[in-house]
Amino acid sequence: MRLILADDTVLLREGMVRLMEEEGHEVIASVGDGQTLIAAVTRFADAGEPPDVVVVDVRMPPTHTDEGLRAALTIRERWPDIGVLVLSQYVEKAYATELITSGQEGFGYLLKDRVMRVEEFVEALDRIGAGGVAFDPDVVRQLLARTTHTDPLSKLTPREREVLALMAEGHTNQGIAGKLFISQSAVEKNVNALLDKLGIAPEPGYSRRSLAIATYLTN
Amino acid sequence: MRNHDGLLRRSATTLTGVLLGSLLAWLEFAFLLVGSLGLIPIVAAPRSRERVVRFAHRCARQLAVLEQRRLHRFHRVDDLGPYSDRQAFQYVSRRWPIGALGGLVLLVLTFGLLVAASMISAWIAGGTWSLIEEDGGQVTTATVVVIALPGLLLLYLNVMGIVGVADLDAAIARRYLAPSAEDVLARRVSELTLSRAEVVQVVNDERRRIERDLHDGVQQRLVALGLLLSRARRAKDPVLAADLVRQAHEASERAVADLRDVAWRVYPTVLDHLGLRDVIADVAERSSIPVNLRYDLTERPPTSVETVAYFVIAEAVTNAAKHSGAHTIEIEVGRSSPDGDRILVVVTDDGRGGADPGGRGLGGLAGRVAAVDGTFQVQSPPGGPTVVRVELPCV
Asked: CB count, 10 Å around CB of B59?
């Protein structure tokens, strides 16, 4: 994939660039703040070669608050086809909710520390690149803990809860099967059962499905 | 000899003060006369009363400020103000007779001195004494001896009169322009409220800075370190893997060093067991610009004062290193007066000046200093030098 990285810590940016190259991706630009990021995306998009995914840190200069997030929203608005992965320092529930319920595909919201778990990070990037979604397990855990639909959730078996969490993160059935060491058909059974219990209509496509669940959890 | 000098100088300043005071009396008297003309529009248009009175009071303030400067300069009266325009007017309208009295006393003195001078010159020159009487007789030694005693007595009375006028002047100024005990209390309460708000602000700023230090420094380093290790684990090539592990090891050392720095900035624990002198010496050593340190405190100040002094110095040195382009920095720590209980910290750099006292760093320092009841001044004209001067009470 062709990527643009935006992070103000040079050290980390360089590390990520190297990692992406080792994974066989191409980093076409790496920048240190939101404005430069938008400029870079504009430049490539205008040249007819937009990046597949943009990875952006929430906290960047000048104010170190939410520059990256605003840049991410701008990119989503102007170039809906470009995947965006937002890296955040904390789980900001308000952000997460806003982002998840916007019902977008090709979008991810991860805790920054996930970068250290290269497998998860790379997998999330791949999902986003393929038009899927990737929500941080911590975000999902918080959504699960705080959701107002606790009643239907309590009817789920422990296994179904695990599957639900992984679905909400944006994993495919195959990914879930791999993570839980069970067969894909067992995953499908669990998925159907839990969608039934929660009263969520089965959605076509994995990202639509996880969005439906995330939306359910945030409302 | 020095005492003698001091006495002479003090006499001269007092004399000058009284003289200026008598001149100002004229001005005040004139002002009151003109001010009374202001009664005419009031009689004509009663609604203008408020405005005319306010204007008169505002003008009176200008005069009071002049008086205040004179009293401060020549009579060492420093405890005046703040006062309202109304108080200034009351003061000005009651003060002028004292000024006039001062003028009178000075006139008498002048006359006495003239008489004495002419007499003595006549006595020395052996001439006749023609100042008082046209056909004055010879001034003999006997005449001088006889006249000297009452003359000296009169001179003494006159000097007492001048001193008295000066005292009276100070007293009336204090009566009308010095804040009452209630005012002083009220002012103290508002100062404390302000400094409390500043303390809260300072604490918040500090916390924000610590958060940023941890997040933008240490945490990023750790994430980068994790990334290196992750890559090392995934590397197929053992040479590359070994290299990545080596890099990771270096990164971990840097992260630890970062963490140590952050902790040091949060609170230099060495301050507790080493004391201010050694910690400042350390700051001076770490500085990228050469530092001259003069430390004149014999015993250790209280911890709270030490901490503030340390932060003032550390911040000032950091600022100078970052922005000033200075060649040397001078740090002085000592008592503000030989027997005083206030500690004086002065940090001077010969850089380009133009430091902003309201900026983040310096503003925070001002708050810290206010919190322990100290005074904080920054002088930083464009072109330098920058002087940060802090006085801290040691109680």
From this structure: 18
Indicate the fold that domain A147-217 takes in CATH: Arc Repressor Mutant, subunit A (1.10.10)
The answer to whether the A2-136 and A147-217 domains have the same CATH topology is: no
Which residue of chain B comes nearest to A121, CA vs CA? B227
Interchain contact, B230 vs A113, CB within 8 Å: no
Q: In angstroms, what separates the C-alpha of A12 from chain B's closest C-alpha?
A: 5
Rounded-to-integer distance, Cα A82 and Cα B230, Å: 27
A129-180 per-position pLDDT tens digit: 998 889 888 888 888 887 777 778 888 899 998 999 999 888 989 999 999 9
Best residue of B219, B221, B230, B234 to probe chain A, by most A CBs closer than 10 Å: B230
Q: Where are the alpha helices (DSSP H) in chain B?
A: 2-37, 39-44, 49-75, 85-125, 141-177, 181-212, 220-234, 238-266, 270-274, 276-286, 303-319, 360-371
Which fold would CATH assign to domain A2-136? Rossmann fold (3.40.50)
Domain positions in chain A are: 2-136, 147-217
Look at domain B270-393 and name its CATH class: alpha beta
List C-alpha distances in Å: B247 to A113, B222, B226, B240, B351. 19, 13, 11, 10, 39
Helix axes A158-169, A206-218, angle to 10 degrees: 110
CB contact under 8 A, A89 and B227: no
pTM attached to this predicted model: 0.63
Looking at residue B133, what is its pLDDT? 58
> In chain A, what residues touch B216 (CB-CB under 8 Å)?
8-9, 59, 64
CA–CA gap between residue A78 and residue A81 (Å, rounded): 9
**Contact criterion met (CB below 8 Å) for B16 and B74:** yes
pLDDT digits (tens, 9 = 90+) for B344-369: 999 999 888 888 877 767 877 888 88
